[in-house]
Amino acid sequence: MATIKESADNSLLASSCEAGHSACCKDGYIFLPKKEFETVLQYLATQPKNLKEFRSRVTDFGNFLLYNQKTRCQFLLADERCELHPLGIKPTECFWWPAHVYLADDGTLEIRVANCCSGCGLIQPNSPHVEKVAEQARTIGLPIITEFRRTHSYGKDYRVVMKF
């Protein structure tokens, strides 16, 4: 089932992720805007154990939250697929992968890509995925994205694929 969050490139990116054993889902933090956090809470409302696990992994920063994947996201199924994806509630940042959104000091929106797996090569400046990421970042709000990046940056070398 496609969701509005997906770009035309998402199926290729997802296949690349699964082929790489979903390494992106086994380390790091996921940016959760408040609305997305609330949606996952609603989904987990009838699953007390999973809800408790989810809450234990989340840190609230006021305008957004960070979800700690620890060594494996709790929503990553045994076959390397995301439990939340077919429900349409997979976090936006997961759809953005391998693109990462930053705001330069001059206020320029930057879409950056790390070289962590084969999916990274799929993201080029003319990629529809880059446009979709920029659109979604603006919808979330650039001040919130800026606050997120001041709080958490992956500290990796990224190539900038597009500046807006």
Q: Summarize the amount of helix as a percent range.
A: 25-40%
Structural class: alpha+beta
Biggest sheet, spatial arrangement of strands: 1-3-2
Can you tell me the residue ranges where pLDDT is under 50 for at least 5 consecutive residues? none
Number of strands: 6
The string of secondary-structure elements, in order, is HEHHEEHEEHHE
Strand content range: 15-25%
- What is the helix tally? 6
Terminus-to-terminus distance:
30 Å
Q: Look at the structure and give the mean pLDDT.
A: 83
**Sheet bearing the most strands, described?**
3 strands, antiparallel
As a whole number of angstroms, the C-alpha radius of gyration is 15 Å
The shape, in one word, is: globular
Describe the secondary-structure layout.
Blueprint: H1 10-19, E1 29-33, H2 34-44, H3 48-57, E2 58-60, E3 64-68, H4 92-96, E4 99-103, E5 109-114, H5 128-140, H6 142-151, E6 158-163
Antiparallel strand pairs: 1-3, 2-3, 4-5, 5-6
Q: Tags for this entry?
A:
3-stranded antiparallel sheet, 6 strands, 6 helices, 36% helix, alpha+beta, 164 residues
